[in-house]
Each structure stands twice: as structure tokens, then as C-alpha cells.
Amino acid sequence: MWGRPVVRGLYYNGKTITLDGYQFVECRFDKCELRVASTNFELINCVLDADSVIRYGTEALKIIRLFNSRAEWMYETAPGLMPRKNADGTITIADV
């Protein structure tokens, strides 16, 4: 089995970085846009500043929405990370 390429000790500032497929070790991300579409990445001893934004792809977002499905307070603070709540009380997590 092939391992992920290792990116070690780099400093990113104001960059758009796709995390998928890589292992980042001791890297720093300042004011970056981090894109992730799967669980195929690792961040080890990395720093993400408060100004960096994380953009989730559709597949990763499904997992996040399922995880958050029981955190009612999240509907107010981060509605985009929540499942769709239907009028009958059910939820929907789909590509629709």
C-alpha cells in the first residue's frame, strides 16, 4: 500500500491548499483556504490560524452533518454544517 506524500515544515500564508492525499507534518497555515473532500489526509503537529477557512467537499460534509445531527445549538451557529431538518422532525443528508 502506498503512503501519502509527506509535506514537512512548510509555512503557507494566504494560499489555497487541498489537503486530500497528503500528510502535513509541522506545517503552519495562516489566512489560508483549506479544501478537504475526503478523510484521506493527515495533519500532524500543524498550526491553523483563526483566519484560515476550511471548505468541505460534498462527501466530507455528509460525515460532518451526521456527526452534528444531534447538536441542536449548531443550527444557529453553523447551519451549513447541519443536516436539513424536515417539517416532520426527520433529517436529510443527501447530495440533493
What would your notes on this structure say?
- The chain is α/β, with parallel strands linked by helices and about 100 residues long.
- The chain is about 15% helix and about 35% strand.
- It folds into 2 domains: about 5-55, no CATH class; about 60-90, no CATH class.
- It contains 2 helices and 11 strands, in the order βββββββββααββ.
- The strands form 4 sheets. It has a 3-stranded parallel sheet with strand order 1-4-7, with no helix packed on it.
- The longest helix is centred in the middle third of the chain and has 11 residues, at about 60-70.
- The mean pLDDT is about 95.
Summarize the structure.
By secondary structure, the chain is of the alpha/beta class.
How confident overall, as mean pLDDT? 94
Terminus-to-terminus distance: 34 Å
Q: Tell me the strand order in the biggest sheet.
A: 1-4-7
How many E strands? 11
Strand content: 25-35%
Helix share bin: 10-25%
Contiguous helical run count: 2
Structural class: alpha/beta
The major pleated sheet works out as:
3 strands, parallel
State the domain count: 2
Radius of gyration, whole Å = 16 Å
